[in-house]
Amino acid sequence: MHKLQKLIGLSAMAGLLLSGCGQAGDPEIIMPDTPMQPSAAASGGVTAEPAAAVEETGDAGVQETQPAAGAGEAHTVYLITMDLADSYWQSIDKGCKQAAEELGNITYKWIGPDTHDDALQSACVDQAVSEGADAILIAANSADGINDSLQRAADAGCKIIYVDSAASFDCVTALATDNEAAGKTAADSMKKALADRGITSGTIGVMGVTQDTASCVARETGFRAAFEGTDFVLADTVYMMDDVTNIRNAVTTGQSQGYVAYFGTNEGTSVAAGEAVRESGQDDLVVGFDTSDAMLALIADGTAYATMQQNPERMGHDGMVIAVQALEGTYTDTNTKTDTGVTVITADSM
Fold this sequence. Notes:
By secondary structure, the protein is α/β, with parallel strands linked by helices. The chain has helices at 10-14, 87-103, 118-130, 147-155, 179-196, 214-227, 244-256, 267-280, 293-300, 312-328; strands at 4-6, 46-48, 56-57, 63-65, 75-80, 106-111, 135-138, 159-163, 173-176, 202-208, 232-234, 238-239, 261-264, 285-289, 306-309, 336-339, 343-346.
């Protein structure tokens, strides 16, 4: 008997979403132009029956979990993220580890490049294949830049599952925030905060990661769309490009030009913008993404107004479970999409 059970429940998903983000529809993540339609999409969380705890080993940059003795057929599953630094990726890793422990038949490794780079991430995919990966959970660095390596993985029989950010290559499933809707929610939060301050016009700084990071681009798209028809002007996006100095300099420039607020599309850009505002001593409005300790500290001390909390642990956990279901033949759909939700975190809600 399989240890896996797929739980389908719309109420479970609804509980994760704000009223403004819980509308029916596909998440805004990059997928093939004509994906196959699943016979039944899982709307709720996916759970696995508990199994024996597993032993963890590994060197820096590679975190590995070995299967428990006496478990069923063993599978090797890799998580590959855009880098290994952000606490957001660490949360996805935590969810993967939890599922691996519950399943008890997983050899699990987390690897990734040092910086956001297609070639480096492609090398990680090739490494996973060469080391015998049966399935790869991946947060794709760009829509098309790693497709050749994903093709090689698929040719080797690997199951591809996207977490957080999808490429345009076919997959089993993609688990991610509805990023465009989340960007709109961030904008709505900022507009409310600006109105509370009596600010009805002005320039807003927008901070991105790279031009090719699909999840963050979708957040920016939703954010900008929400400000259409207002008296606010959204500045050209400044991209961090793995260098926080770019964001800090942009905030300094914005302050000299009288910007009224700043929006960060991910943890790194949000924290860099918030810390720049804190160090300046000015009372600028900051809205961002993700809930690292650094970002929550900025919320708690009033430097940042709000951050969008995603559900990365669920992405990792459910992605791992679905990967094993796909390997064992109990999950047969392809190119499905699951919105894993977003919540607005402010000082009042902490």
